[in-house]
Amino acid sequence: MDFKTFFEQNKKACVGGLAGVTVVLLGVAAITGHNSGTTVETTADASTTAETSASVATTAVDFYSKLSAGEPVSLLIIGDGFSSGNNLDDYSKAWAELISTKLHEEFSSEVTIDNYALPSSNTAYSGYVIANELPDGSEYDAVILSFGNYDTPDNFGTFYEGMVRALVNKCPGISIISLIEPSSVTNPDGYSDDNASAIQSITDNYNGITVDIAKLMQDNGSDVSATAASDMINQNEDGNAATADIILSSIKTAVNDNIGHSDSNIDSINDISALDDYAYIPVADFAKVDDTTFAIPADYITDVDGNVISGLLGIDYNYLPGSNDVYVTSDGTPFGRHTVEFDGTESEQHIVLINDNFEPTDHVTISFASADEANSFAGMIVTGNVELPASYDTFEPKEITEPTTETLLTLLGEDTDEDIVSEGGPGSESDDTSADVPADGDTKYVDGVLYEYYQGDWYEVINDDTGNPDMGVKSQVVATRSANEVITNKESVHSSENQAADVTEAAVSTEGSIEAGTEAASETAVESTAVSKEAATEAETTAPEATESGSDSGFVNPGEAQAAAGNYSINETDANGNVVGSVVETY
After folding, report:
1. What is the pLDDT of residues 402-432, one digit of tens each?
2. Residue 119 DSSP code
3. Which of 20, 207, 24 is nearest to 100 (CA)?
4. Helix (H, G, I), strand (E, B) or coil at 163
């Protein structure tokens, strides 16, 4: 699933409305990490809501002043399992669901909530990635951040402020609301208490408010441990209700104090300049070497401006029940490894750090413990360098399949046979062919096989195996990140015998014998699929096929058991602007 689709699936459209308008309540979908598969959706008349909303001019400029004026507000939630309702069977009882209704009841504002929290043990680093994948100019009035229990203090402040900084830059005028999770009291083995001061100081620096859930519950006479879930990290239904009340109370205080919002001109506390360099490389840019292994050339690892980026490496994939293992080499040398025993019953998306000082010169190889785990691979994150604890350098190397440079380029559709290129197409038999520059749509027969020319390459035309010339097929056009783009699965389907005859006529005007293919071209629709110049001259290749981005990769959990984030491609392109899934439909 691409990142845009992830946003749309997890968007919690309007809760509430202006005074006198029917309440619109969308039950917040279970993001990930909980067992409820139920989503409740009830909608009011959209035109009535839109008309009423339009009748009130928006004059307030920030989250708190908008609430004070009863104007519509948009709220973003980014966090770990405490924000995603990890332990609840009924997600409607989660604080992230309850807060929207409470805000509407208190201020009569229409409240839109997007909850992009990831499950269980995701850290502030994953929040930093989510924040960077938000579109520029996102119009959120406020964000609630909830991390700390799973983050070792070594680099927590760096990634937490990197996340806040990205939000402030992506969402001008956003107000920051940070939670100190109740596990700061209930789970002494976690890190919430250790990270509390960093959360407070960073939030203060960006003119936000910090809500210490456990402390405020105790101030209200509640025993935070009594409402803790069995894991002593999360809260039960009563604890979630109390959390929502405390957040509401803190927001009411901020409204009365006219807190205001953050500003991108504020100086950072930590040295986070390296985190300004950021790239998300989606799985579609990798070659799949075998069932468990992916590889990518070093010069494919670039930011949105095409600059090669190096430093800190992270991986976005799913934990599966049982043993999980992702192993990375750089230029064939062991680079990092992340292993975990996951005791969950369903897969969960996790964005994890692998190691620092990442600077490959030739290629990178990523190997997973199983094919199912590999199928969940969504992408690779590279940022400027942040020094990690020495423990990241301590891991056991293992044997994996390392592709040669030639094999890797072949898998990615790169041209490695210059002779074929100079001859102008597969199987060309005349020296004059190279002198004639073909045009897109030109066709030719070679040894009874029909080829079509498209943007610098010849593509083998294969009969549509449906046998129905009016049915056609669906396929994708995928541009590689290389300088020489190769279009895969380019499609040319004709829906009538007359159109099929056009293919034959085009073939007559090109070189090569047409007799062997004329009958096939006139009787059936044809689909043109990309073949590399090497493959066009060989009967078969033994190299594994290049990977495709499918529904089982990225942020889609196997079996679609849970909603989760995806490949972070926006508007059908990846973070670097390359097309990753433009569907060409035929008739």
Report:
1. 999 999 999 999 865 543 333 333 333 444 4
2. -
3. 24
4. helix
Alpha-carbon distances of 126 from 118, 129, 415, 517, rounded to whole Å: 8, 5, 37, 54
Q: What confidence category does residue 518 fall into, taking pLDDT thresholds of 50, 70 and 90?
A: very low
Residue bearing the bigger pLDDT, 562 or 168: 168
> Over the Cα atoms of the chain, what is R_g?
27
d(CA 343, CA 351): 17
Assign 304 to helix, strand or coil: coil
Section 291-319 average pLDDT: 97
Confidence of residue 494 (pLDDT cuts 50, 70, 90): very low
At which residue do the structure tokens 């994150």 appear?
Answer: 381
CA dihedral for 555, 274, 131, 199, sign (positive or negative): positive
E strand or H helix that includes residue 299: none
Give the pLDDT of residue 457: 79
Q: How far is CA 270 from CA 141, 160, 265, in A?
A: 25, 10, 15
Of 11-25, 146-160, 501-515, the poorest mean pLDDT is in 11-25
Strand 25-26 vs strand 11-15: parallel, antiparallel, or unpaired? unpaired
**Of 24-38, 216-230, 295-309, the least confident:** 24-38
Could you give the dihedral angle defined by the CA atoms of residues 237, 239, 241 and 246, in that order, rounded to the nearest 10 degrees?
-170
CB 574, CB 284: distance < 8 Å: yes
Query: Helix (H, G, I), strand (E, B), or coil: what is residue 369?
Result: coil
Mean pLDDT value of segment 510-522: 35
How far is residue 56 CA from its own chain's centroid? 36
Please give the Cα distance from 22 to 242 (Å, whole number): 26
Give 129-141 pLDDT, tens digit per residue.
999 999 999 999 9
Residue 336, token pair as written in the block: 């990092």
The token duo for 74 is 């948009």
**For position 415, what pLDDT does the model report?**
65
Q: How far apart are the first and last CA of the chain?
A: 26
Q: What is the DSSP letter of 28?
A: P
CB atoms under 10 Å from CB of 577, counted, come to 14
What is the mean predicted confidence (pLDDT) over 327-341?
Answer: 98
Show the DSSP H helices in 133-173 as ranges.
153-170
Mean pLDDT, all residues of the chain: 75
Are 330 and 297 in contact by the 8 Å Cβ rule? The answer is no
Domains of the chain: 19-257 (3.40.50.1110), 276-411+551-575 (2.60.120), 421-537 (no CATH)
Q: How far apart are CA 123 and CA 84, in angstroms?
A: 13
CB-based contact 553:5 (threshold 8 Å): no
Token duo for residue 291? 């069932």
Question: Which residue do the tokens 């210490």 mark?
Answer: 212
Label residues 40-51 b or e (16+ Cβ within 10 Å = b): eeeeeeeeebee
